[in-house]
UniProtKB/TrEMBL annotation:
<dbReference type="GO" id="GO:0033499">
    <property type="term" value="P:galactose catabolic process via UDP-galactose, Leloir pathway"/>
</dbReference>
<keyword id="KW-0413">Isomerase</keyword>
<comment type="subunit">
    <text>Homodimer.</text>
</comment>
<protein>
    <recommendedName>
        <fullName>UDP-glucose 4-epimerase</fullName>
        <ecNumber>5.1.3.2</ecNumber>
    </recommendedName>
</protein>
<keyword id="KW-0520">NAD</keyword>
<dbReference type="GO" id="GO:0003978">
    <property type="term" value="F:UDP-glucose 4-epimerase activity"/>
</dbReference>
<dbReference type="InterPro" id="IPR005886">
    <property type="entry name" value="UDP_G4E"/>
</dbReference>
<dbReference type="InterPro" id="IPR001509">
    <property type="entry name" value="Epimerase_deHydtase"/>
</dbReference>
<keyword id="KW-0119">Carbohydrate metabolism</keyword>
<comment type="pathway">
    <text>Carbohydrate metabolism; galactose metabolism.</text>
</comment>
<dbReference type="InterPro" id="IPR036291">
    <property type="entry name" value="NAD(P)-bd_dom_sf"/>
</dbReference>
<comment type="similarity">
    <text>Belongs to the NAD(P)-dependent epimerase/dehydratase family.</text>
</comment>
<dbReference type="Pfam" id="PF01370">
    <property type="entry name" value="Epimerase"/>
</dbReference>
<feature type="domain" description="NAD-dependent epimerase/dehydratase">
    <location>
        <begin position="3"/>
        <end position="252"/>
    </location>
</feature>
Amino acid sequence: MSVLVTGGAGYIGSHMVLNLADAGETVIVLDNLTTGFEWLIDHRVKLVTGNVSDTQLVEKLIAEHDVEAVIHFAGSIVVPESVENPLKYYKNNTASTRDLIEACVNGGVKHFIFSSTAAVYGMVGLEPVAEDVLLNPASPYGKSKLMSEWMLADVAAAHPMTYGVLRYFNVAGADPEMRSGQSTAGATHLIKVAVQTALGHRAKMSVFGDDYPTPDGTCVRDYIHVSDLVSAHALLLDHLRKGGESTTMNCGYGRGFSVDEVVRTVKAVTGIDFIVEHGPRRPGDPASIVAGADRIKALGWQPKYDNLEGIVEMAYKWEKYLDTRNDRPSIL
Ligand code: UFG
């Protein structure tokens, strides 16, 4: 039996592959390599280059490798891009997921784990958000993921498949052994941008808005280490394999840091002062989004890297490692 990881050549997917391979699982990666990198994939696993919407290919893989579970990471993830190009998101996230689920149903896959996002909540207050609040995604990205959540629930009610949905908060950091890290070209995420600025790859960076109703006026986010995030997937897979019910869970630590706090931490950890401008708000940004983490903790999740300095340190170390590669993904 094996586990099929879609998007396994991407940032989070490649960490999932490491987690599964370290646990002795047989893993197949399906990735079209548009944003992922072959060199990020652990050598112990098989890479198949292709699209998750290629139902024929997926059904063939399921049959050939006796796929018991699918962990679905492949998709597009940039909130502002989804506002400019919504159809890309409905295609890559919603339509493709629909096709993948169909292949899984046809192939008799037992369990499906889906990477969803805190963006399904939209604008919430300053308190940690629980899974069962009214969902009101503010961006096409959040909507494209929420539709997939709904599809999964409907499909699992009609077919013998259980699912786990994890709603990710702000994922950052890198594998503590430096086997993988955030390598996406043109990354827009705060910690990545800040460590790149510290390294001089960007002349300066901007804080998007400082007039939010938060303690220091900048946005608050729940930054979670990528290795803790993938360990939550492993736990969820174990839960489903033991006959556990389908479930939807936030994946964050339940505490937040402001943009200014993150920038200060990057300066402290790297020991480098860099230019930070305070600019206008970025469209679609909620003031604060922090995970209510009761559900995932009740499942027995024990995060190991809940420490912003440590997360930044690993992100910084990975960025320096990328500098040593001739094929370094482009910064901008
Ligand atoms: N930010 C800056 N300057 C930058 C980059 C980001 O000020 O150069 C700010 C943003 O405005 C935001 C915060 O830093 O307030 C975090 O921004 P990111 O782009 O790092 O992350 P987002 O919060 O926009 O989005 C991330 C994921 C989504 C997920 C969301 C849930 O990319 O997939 O977290 O909170 F849905």
